[in-house]
Input
Amino acid sequence: MEWAQEAADDDMQSYVLFRKSHQAAAQVNADQTIGLARAAQRVPNLTSRISALAAQQEATGYALQKNSRAALAKFDEARELAGQHQANEPTTALDTSYCTPAYIELQRANCFIDLGDPLRAVQLFEDEIAALPQMYRNDRGVYLARLARAYGKAGEPEQGADTAGRALAIAARTGSARTLSELTAVSRVVESRQSVLWRRSSSAFRSFVISSPPRGRADEEAEGMDDLITQATSGEERRRRPSIAVLPVGSFEQHGDHLPLITDTAIACLIAKRIADDHGLFLLPPITMSCSHEHAAMAGTVSISAATLYAVVNDIWRSLQASGAPGLVVVNGHGGNYVLSNVVQEINVNGPRVALFPVHEDRARARSDAGLESSAAEDMHGGEFEASLLLHGAPHLVRAGIEQDDHSAPSRPHLLTTGMAEYTSNGIIGRPSLATAAKGKALLDSLAESARAHVDVIAKD
Output
């Protein structure tokens, strides 16, 4: 708090008070919760979201006092403040992008339990959880656990146990300590109802907590990528004897603040695995660094030369040819890998051996089949196309807040000369706010169908 005051950082001062109020609420100290939240709101020059968080915390204190009227009125105020956020508000070092009207409503639902109205809590939780973006996986686990508690309080232990099981499945996948903590509170409520279903879920929960070490985002991402990278053995490939391999080529480059540096690699792996599964092909591990020189001015980007990428792909094909798999589908996840066209053309001089996928026509068909709302010119980098594929195939890689990253730069005549930084400050050119998992599935289905013709051309030779 002292350094925030010395730095004259009003938002930080208020946020520290908000966090202290949150800690007081966890200790069920209603008076201190309210007092600290009021102090947080008295700090001048606050952004709307910081104000909303402080107001929401005051409402929580009233709920602990069983003061329903004051709590609901303050929640209404917090929701209105959260909805007033404007893109041109002063920037702050604090990430409060999660504080939306929907977030406030989820906090209201939790307080309905404290107010002795679990049925209203159940209804509000159900409505708001259903509307949560798929990228909010950890939050979904937490809120499902709270919904399970509400069901228990409402005298519906079977429904509570079923919901707790859904939360537990997310915790098992993500290792969310918050979800596990919430599930511990659920067990005290639902277990007392002597539900057979709950006893089964509770046993699984206890076994999971005892046997599983804490996990973080790094564990989750590693597990998610394991699903996309081949784990085949030599014996398995010897028995299958595939004549065509699939090589995903990605990149390691910036995709804004809410998509990972491995975005292109993950997408290439997702498409390559689908093609290999559909046709029984030999799935290769990805090339993870390529020609991302247009992103060089932005943090995290690492490139190799076009000559190096050419040599690597050419060497991989020659190795495959020597081992009895002369066909190769190169799945390119990065638009800047222009040299791939050259290496494929040169290899195919003596007959079709290698296909580059997807080409322009494949992507255009996929966009149409999936009903994408942005045009190909608008959707150049980190937009609707890429975010949708990740939301479908690897949602754990998408950070909360991506819906605020939209940036328009449909005309980029000097991109090769000036690079991306000339056309975007946040690293995105496109509208990721339009992305959905359903669009991602439709994109992948369409691309898989288009890949069939490319595989057939190679197989016929």
About this structure: The mean pLDDT is 86.
